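To illustrate the input format used throughout this study, we show a single complete record. The first block contains the structure-token representation of the backbone; no residue identities are included at this stage. The design step must infer an amino acid for every position from geometry alone.
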């Protein structure tokens, strides 16, 4: 989970059809040092960027992806 300057939480969500990443605002619940509960803004199956987001720009083409289990 990342935060805008105004502290609004977001993730970089990847469009499954075009493979492009864009900011997607989310609502978070409980947080710990290792986990964050996402209450709104994502659905099961959404793909998000976990590494390398520091260099992303809106509509960036994502060429490498790895599926992880979030259950």
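Output of the design step:
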């Amino acid at each position: 989970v990342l935060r805008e300057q105004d502290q609004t939480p977001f993730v970089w969500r990847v469009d499954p059809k075009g493979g492009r990443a864009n900011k997607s605002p989310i609502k978070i619940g409980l947080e710990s040092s290792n986990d964050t509960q996402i209450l709104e803004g994502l659905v099961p199956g959404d793909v998000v960027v976990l590494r390398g987001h520091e260099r992303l720009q809106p509509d960036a083409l994502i060429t490498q992806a790895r599926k992880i289990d979030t259950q």
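Structural context for interpreting the output: DSSP finds no helices and seven strands in the chain. Strands lie at 2-3, 9-14, 20-25, 27-31, 36-40, 47-48, 60-61.
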